[in-house]
């Protein structure tokens, strides 16, 4: 497949370790945030979401943390596996802009070393 | 794929030609979107549609056009006015705008 991000920041972790991917969002009025995973040559897949009235949300092996004070979002992946290797994007809904579509960050490439 | 079908997967276009990318969804979603992705960048919004017969420009609408005549379909035309059309194009849909969007598998357009 093709690479979707040749110059993305890269996080390299060992299989079995925990991964933390960070995202700084731009709009303080955004009230809904999503993490997506994108494998090479494919469309983004939904991982987990969180609303602004929450600080933390957990899924299966994943946790999203939201710090509204500093406009920061993080995705934690527990016991990282080779299948987690992909590019990860955060997205926000920009609730006050009148634009009714998600705005995406630039992405982080996660590489899992066996 | 989440019920969103983009076709074709790969598309080649000669300079000066218009080309239309197909996007169909069977999720009964009201909202649909087109994003463009270039290497080293995130997704940039081209156009979106909240309901049938309505659509709005996104951040990079110049050189593109869309239609929304049916709820299931949101085709994107890349016109000859788009100066740098080579990119990966992603279509998405959501129950309503501002909620989680589900993506198709993309169309890679190359100008030859």
Outline the structure in words.
- The complex is a heterodimer of chains A (114) and B (112).
- Chain A is mostly beta strands.
- Chain A is 0% helix and 48% strand.
- Chain A contains no helices and ten strands.
- Chain A has strands at residues 10-14, 19-24, 32-38, 45-51, 56-58, 62-67, 72-77, 86-92, 103-104, 108-113.
- In chain A, strands 1, 3, 4, 8, 9 and 10 form a six-stranded mixed β-sheet that branches. A four-stranded antiparallel β-sheet of chain A has the order 2-7-6-5, with no helix packed on it.
- The relative contact order of chain A is 0.34.
- With 112 residues, chain B is mainly β.
- Chain B has strands at 4-7, 10-13, 19-25, 31-37, 43-49, 56-57, 64-66, 76-78, 87-94, 102-103, 107-111.
- In chain B, the strands form two sheets. In chain B, strands 2, 4, 5, 6, 9, 10 and 11 form a seven-stranded mixed β-sheet that branches. A four-stranded antiparallel β-sheet of chain B has the order 1-3-8-7, with no helix packed on it.
- Chain B is globular and about 35 Å long.
What key phrases describe this protein's structure?
heterodimer; A: 114 residues; mainly beta; 6-stranded mixed beta sheet; 4-stranded antiparallel beta sheet; 0% helix; disordered N terminus; B: 112 residues; 7-stranded mixed beta sheet; 11 strands
Provide the residue-averaged pLDDT of chain A.
89
Number of helices, counting only DSSP H or I runs of 4 residues or more of chain A: 0
Structural class computed from helices and strand pairing of chain A: mainly beta
Element-level helix/strand string of chain B: EEEEEEEEEEE
Strand content of chain A: over 45%
Termini of chain A, distance in Å?
Answer: 21 Å
* Global structural class of chain B: mainly beta
* Rg of chain A, Å, rounded: 14 Å
Give the tally of β-strands of chain A: 10
Total helices of chain B: the number is 0
Per DSSP, what share of the residues of chain B sits in E-state strands of 2 or more residues? over 45%
Distance between the termini of chain B: 29 Å
Q: What coarse outline of chain A follows from CA principal-axis ratios?
A: globular
Greatest interface (CB-CB under 8 A), with counts per chain: A-B, 29 and 32 residues
Q: State the low-pLDDT regions of chain A, or none.
A: 1-6
On the 0 to 100 scale, the average pLDDT of chain B is: 93
């Amino acid at each position: 497949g093709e690479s979707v991000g040749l110059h993305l920041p890269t996080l390299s972790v060992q299989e079995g370790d925990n991964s933390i991917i960070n995202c700084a969002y731009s709009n303080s009025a955004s009230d809904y945030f999503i993490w997506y995973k994108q494998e090479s040559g494919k469309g983004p897949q939904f991982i987990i979401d969180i609303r602004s009235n929450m600080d933390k949300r957990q899924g299966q092996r994943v946790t999203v943390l939201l710090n509204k004070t500093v406009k920061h979002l993080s995705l934690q992946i527990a016991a990282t596996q080779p299948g987690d290797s992909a590019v990860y994007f955060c997205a926000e809904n920009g609730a006050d802009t009148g634009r009714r579509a998600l705005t995406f960050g630039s992405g982080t490439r996660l590489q899992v070393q066996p | 794929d989440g019920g969103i079908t983009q076709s074709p997967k790969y598309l080649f276009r000669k300079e000066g030609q218009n080309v239309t990318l197909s996007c169909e969804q069977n999720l009964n979603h009201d909202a649909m979107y087109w994003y463009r992705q270039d290497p080293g960048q995130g997704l940039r919004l081209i156009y979106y549609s909240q309901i049938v017969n309505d659509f709005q420009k996104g951040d990079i609408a110049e050189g593109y056009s869309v239609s929304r005549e049916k709820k299931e379909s949101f085709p994107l035309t890349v016109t000859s006015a788009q100066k740098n059309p080579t990119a990966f194009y992603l279509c998405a849909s959501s129950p309503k705008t501002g909620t989680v969007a589900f993506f198709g598998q993309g169309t890679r357009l190359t100008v030859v």
